Amino acid sequence: MWNQQLEERILRYTAIATPSDSASPTAPSTECQWDLLRVLEQELRAMGAAEVELGEFGHLMATVPGNSAGPVVAWMAHVDTSQQFNGLNVKPIVHRAYAGGDIVLPDDPTQVISPEEFPYLKGKVGHDIVTASGTSLLGADDKAGAAIVMTLAEHLLKHPEIPRPRTRLCFTPDEEIGRGVKHLDFARLGADYAYTLDGGDVGELCNETFSADKAVITVTGVSIHPGWAKDKLVNALHLACQIVEMLPKVTRTPETTEGKQGFIHVTTLEGGSSEAKIQIIIRDFELEGLRSHRELISSVCTAVGLAEPRAQVKVEFVEQYRNMRYWLDKDQRPVELALEAYRKAGITPHLTGIRGGTDGSWLTEKGLLTPNLFAGMQNVHGPLEWVSIQDMNQSVGMCLELVQLYARQPAAAKS
Q1: CATH code for 3-209+323-407?
Q2: Span 368-380, average pLDDT
Q3: pLDDT tens digits, one per residue of 113-170
Q4: Assigned CATH topology for domain 212-320
Q5: What's the maximum distance between 2 C-alpha atoms anywhere in the chain?
Q6: 3-state SS string over the chain?
Q7: Chain Cα centroid distance, residue 269
Q8: CA 139, 142, 148 angle in degrees (round to 5)?
């Protein structure tokens, strides 16, 4: 029903480069994110949305007026793309009526999306598949979500007879670097519940995320001219490498874990012989697992420091976000209504946990319960990323059912 609008939007949105940058102190972290935010702002105004507002920190909000007194629900997507792989000069391609078999990406024929390697693709014969050209990621994470939210809003505005409570829209920057809702004004958003459109397979409903911490290890050595370094120099890089080598390689790494298993992931080693820094992300679904990862890192740092007492080895842990399940278990309404909406839309739902985080992780912890709904995106953060227009279409239909379910709910009590 909405295939044409969705295709037009995702082709237009993904062609706008929006990588975020964790090294930048600004909000948004990159100027290019404003380019897409302003496009969305203009589009919202043109379709007749109310209360359209683009804030100083890059949060774009708008309203679809309601015709019932149900809870206020916010529909959310993020505009930035991952810095993990090239996000510039994206050339989206539609593979019309996919006939099966490998999809070879034209700008780098070594990049092949194979249904044998990615079995979900096997079920998409006849679908219109959107990919990048082979030299960049696509950015369906989360521009597929943005296209779905915009298409939902447009449909509701064109059909004022459809039951809906006051409905809020919110587009965020910097989700990929964990800062998407850091400056979000909850009072201005004014939502009782929220949903992020930032998931994968049709039917996927995410009510769990990793809990996440970051470790920053600083190794300070003893610096001296290498010509006179005998028995004096302590090379910080050597010690930093020892720390990395002492961390597990066959367990507790992203490439050796799956499902509900957590991991320790070294992301950066930089510096020189006098000082070196290691950055590590720590992930686990349970807090006990997170503590275990922290203790292991601390014990490795202690051992390296004791072996070379002339060096200083410091480790700092920074809390990032927590598993949304801890709060959703206390109020099941947003999950239960979403499950019902899936079924009404003819979709078999399955609850799952994200081996990652969403804006909803932090929002849920702060009191705005925000499960994550499917948007169809596959193989994100790399050149083999793709999305089916028909999958996105099913997401819009499911969201429309969910809006109407909230119209029949009692309004949230105001404190």
Answers
A1: 3.40.630.10
A2: 98
A3: 999 999 999 999 999 999 999 999 999 999 999 999 999 999 999 999 999 999 999 9
A4: Alpha-Beta Plaits (3.30.70)
A5: 83
A6: CCHHHHHHHHHHHHCCCCECCCCCCCCCCCCHHHHHHHHHHHHHHHHCCEEEEECCCCCEEEEECCCCCCCCEEEEEECCECCCCCCCCCCCEEECCCCCCCEECCCCCCCEECCCCCHHHHHHCCCCEEECCCCCCCCHHHHHHHHHHHHHHHHHHHCCCCCCCCEEEEEECCHHHCCCCCCCCHHHHCCCEEEEEEECCCCEEEEEECEEEEEEEEEECECCCHHHCCCCCECHHHHHHHHHHHCCCCCCCHHHCCCCCCEEEEEEEEECCCEEEEEEEEEECCHHHHHHHHHHHHHHHHHHHHHCCCCEEEEEEEEEECCCHHHHCCCCHHHHHHHHHHHHCCCCCEEEEECCCCHHHHHHHCCCCCCEEECCCECCCCCCCEEEHHHHHHHHHHHHHHHHHHHCCCCCCCC
A7: 24
A8: 115
**Residue 213, φ and ψ in degrees, nearest 5:** -130, 165
- Sorted by where each begins, the domain ranges of the chain are 3-209+323-407, 212-320
Q: Name the amino acid, one letter, at 380.
A: V
Tell the residue number behind the tokens 């979709």, with chain if given: 347
> For the chain, first and last CA: distance in Å?
40
Mean pLDDT (the chain) is: 96
Name the β-bridge partners of 281.
214, 265
**How many CA atoms lie within 13 Å of 80's alpha carbon, on the beta-carbon side?**
28
Per-residue pLDDT reduced to its tens digit, 246-263:
999 888 999 999 999 999
Q: Tell me which residues are annotated as active site.
A: 80, 175
Helix (H, G, I), strand (E, B) or coil at 391: helix
Closest CA to 75 of 406, 353, 415, 408: 406
Domains 3-209+323-407 and 212-320 share a fold: no
